[in-house]
Amino acid sequence: MFGLGKPRSKFGKWVDKMGLNQNEIAIKSKVGRTTISNMCSDKNHIPKISTWVKVERALKSMGYNVKHDQFFDL
Fold it and tell me: Rounded to an integer, what is the distance from CA 21 to the centroid of its chain?
């Protein structure tokens, strides 16, 4: 079961709901695992626009159409 007892941001909840792996997102987006982890767990974390663009492109290549305003106030 995903997210059991872990604090999650909107993005983290979405990642869990979709059954995605944070490590897979980090590898495909070429963003550090710590950054992806912070995006998933810290509700106050706002990634740089350049970081989000990398993550968004990786997610699109995996078949997910997401926008930053679903998760973050950039």
Answer: 10
**CATH, residue 63:** 1.10.260
Higher pLDDT, 48 or 2: 48
CA distance 29 to 37: 13
Give the gyration radius of the chain's Cα atoms. 11
Residue (of 29, 30, 34) closest to 66 by Cα position: 29
Burial 26-58 (b: 16+ CB within 10 A, else e): beebebeeebbebbbbeeeebbeeebbebbbeb
Q: Is residue 17 situated within a structural domain?
A: yes
| Domain, as residue range, for 34 | 10-70
pTM above 0.90, yes or no: no
74 in Cβ contact with 52 (< 8 Å) = yes
